[in-house]
Amino acid sequence: KMNEDLEVEFGKQITREFSSAMLYRQLAVELELRDLPGMASWMRAHSAEELTHADRLIDHLVARDNRPVIGDIAVPSIKADTVTELFEFALDAEREISLSIRNLYLAAQAQGDIESRPTLDWFVTEQVEEEANVGEVVGRLRMVNEDGPGLLRMDAELAAVPA
Ligand code: OFO
């Protein structure tokens, strides 16, 4: 069983993963409204993936007889003029998640909680991938520069890519 302070920190991360899922879901809505269903489905797939992240943390706590508590889910209001800005929202969110995983890792380390290490190692690796994936999409969208045919092409590509 992990100590209570660390349990609280894990609970906060679980809440962040749920919030992240809702952010991606809202971004999918914004893209649907812009008639970009491929990009919207990419966001929806990512939303579903964030739920699995929350579950992974919940499962770890429950396995150790801790009690994960889900806090308030916060979804930032999205104001974006461009498609690129919508994806930049996602990239900023991933960077924040990376930072919070890093802090959780350090908190676990400070408590000598070696049992959570494999789970947290998985998240550290995952965040490097996530930032790279979303960062690549943002980079390519910047090249496209909101040009219609370019956006449609990326919409078709992202429809086929699991997030
Ligand atoms: Fe997309 O990140 Fe969860 O952890």
UniProtKB/TrEMBL annotation:
Q: Which InterPro entries match?
A: Ferritin, Ferritin-like, Ferritin-like_diiron, Ferritin-like_SF, Ferritin_DPS_dom, Ferritin_prok
Positions the record marks as coiled coil are none
Listed GO CC annotations:
cytosol
Sites where the protein binds Fe cation: E17, E50, H53, E94, Q127
Q: Which UniProt keywords apply?
A: Iron, Iron storage, Metal-binding, Oxidoreductase
Q: Where is the Ferritin-like diiron domain?
A: 1-145
Q: Name one GO molecular function term.
A: ferric iron binding
- Pfam families on file: Ferritin
**Gene3D superfamilies for the chain:** 1.20.1260.10
Top-rank taxon of the source lineage equals Bacteria
- PANTHER family per record: BACTERIAL NON-HEME FERRITIN, FERRITIN
Q: What is this protein called?
A: Ferritin
Q: What is the organism of origin for this protein?
A: Gordonia phthalatica
